[in-house]
Design goal:
The protein is of the alpha/beta class. Helix content is 29%, strand content 13%. The protein contains nine helices and nine strands. A hairpin with a 2-residue loop joins strand 7 (334-337) and strand 8. Residues 124-396 form the Septin-type G domain.
Length: 413
């Protein structure tokens, strides 16, 4: 019997260690450590709202996904497959896995894409455009100034004695660049003085609807240019705060008509203004009544149920939908309470603290609008409302003709 020669045993190659500082954000970074969950060496990617990236521009993302954080990690599902030669058998080392990605032999550095995107976003900044609608005296400008802790809206002291209420609805847009933690945001506040202030308010929503569609049209014309800008200026309205008067009874016909007509072209977030005029019991009853009336009228406010991406989103958004409309109080004045300076409204019986959740729901609105859903508001605007307008326009005209640079400059004048 011939001697059996044992197969050659090759030593397993050493796995290179992950470089100490690759993919780790700096201590001053506003983002937590992030990764992709590939091969056991990573962490989960952040939700789209974690990184504010200008949607619709030719920014830092060129993948096949519509949002930041989505679609990352699918390109590595075949990494390491078919790399080993056939030796003595027909097995493949690093074969396909039916459950997803393959095991990596060492650190690649894919998780650094999050840090790369963060750096680029911090350099370019991003846009956010918010519209406020409601009749005068509801504190619209004051609330926006409170949200962003700066004088970003027009004078919040109300109408001056010599200033007349507009006979028609006007559109006034004011832009500011605000910066926090190295992140720059161009904030545009669109005010609508004159809305709901007339005896006859028929069709008073038409100037607002016209303005919203004009911004979509402006963006569409930039897109069909033969030579497009690297970054298209985004003036589209990402969010419309609709202020409901704290009557404690029901919605006005104007309220339901406005939201019904514009809910399919802009993200509407209803809020109950000056909630400190209602008791806690009155406030809860009024909120339930408003939700029921909106549901009976078929009005969908943001976040819409049909746009929930997964069960986690649905669970989070269900809690928000159950709390809406938020009953808020705005103030840009500070008072001393228990040794601390707080924003509030001083009354004969005490101080209403704006950011105290026991006093009003301003903190919930701020967290929802800025800290968790700001990026999603931009994405829904671009992927749903703008795409609906774009498809309609292209179907009407049989496709828009490309616009020359000279025509574009002339239209911007």
């Amino acid at each position: 019997m011939s001697d059996i020669v044992p197969p050659e045993v090759r030593p397993k190659p050493a796995v290179p260690a992950k470089p100490p500082n690759v993919g780790a954000p700096s201590p001053s970074s506003p983002f937590p450590p992030q990764g992709l969950g590939v091969g056991g060496g990573g962490i989960s990617a952040p939700p789209p709202s974690a990184i504010p990236v200008p949607t619709g521009s030719h920014g830092p993302i060129h993948g096949g996904s519509h949002s930041v954080g989505h679609g990352i990690g699918h390109s590595v599902s075949h990494a390491g497959s078919h790399t080993a030669p056939h030796s003595g058998g027909h097995s493949h080392s690093g074969s396909h896995s039916s459950s997803g990605g393959s095991t990596l032999l060492g650190y690649i550095g894919i998780d650094t894409i999050i840090e790369q995107m963060r750096k680029k976003t911090m350099k370019t900044g991003f846009d956010f455009n918010i519209m406020v609608v409601g009749h005068s005296g509801l504190g619209k400008s004051t609330l926006v100034n409170t949200l962003f802790k700066s004088q970003v809206s027009r004078r919040s002291a109300g109408w001056a004695r010599d200033e007349k209420i507009p006979k028609t609805v006007e559109i006034k847009a004011v832009s500011h660049v605000i910066e926090e933690g190295g992140v720059k945001m161009k904030l545009t506040v669109v005010d609508t003085p004159g809305f709901g202030d007339q005896i006859n308010n028929d069709n008073c929503w038409e100037p607002i609807s016209k303005y919203i569609n004009e911004q979509y049209e402006k963006f569409l014309k930039e897109e069909v240019n033969i030579t497009r800008k690297k970054r298209i200026p985004d003036t589209r309205v990402h969010c419309c705060l609709y202020f409901i008067s704290p009557t404690g009874h029901s919605l006005r016909q104007l309220d339901t008509e406005f939201m019904k007509r514009l809910s399919h072209s802009v993200n509407i977030i209803p809020v109950i203004a000056k909630a400190d005029t209602l008791t806690i019991e009155e406030r809860q009853e009024f909120k339930q009544r408003v939700r029921k009336e909106l549901e009976m009228s078929g009005i969908e406010f943001y976040p819409q149920k049909e746009f929930d991406d997964d069960m986690e989103d649905k669970s989070d958004n269900d809690k928000i939908r159950e709390a809406m409309p938020f009953a808020v109080v705005g103030s840009d004045k500070e008072y001393q309470v228990n040794g601390k300076r707080v924003l509030g409204r001083k009354t004969a019986w005490g101080i209403v603290e704006v950011e105290n959740p026991n006093h009003c729901e301003f903190a919930q609105l701020r967290d929802f609008l800025i800290r968790s859903h700001l990026q999603d508001l931009k994405e829904v605007t671009h992927n749903i409302h703008y795409e609906t307008y774009r498809a309609k326009r292209l179907n009407e005209n049989g496709g828009l003709h490309p616009i020359s640079s000279a025509e574009t400059q002339e239209s911007n004048l």
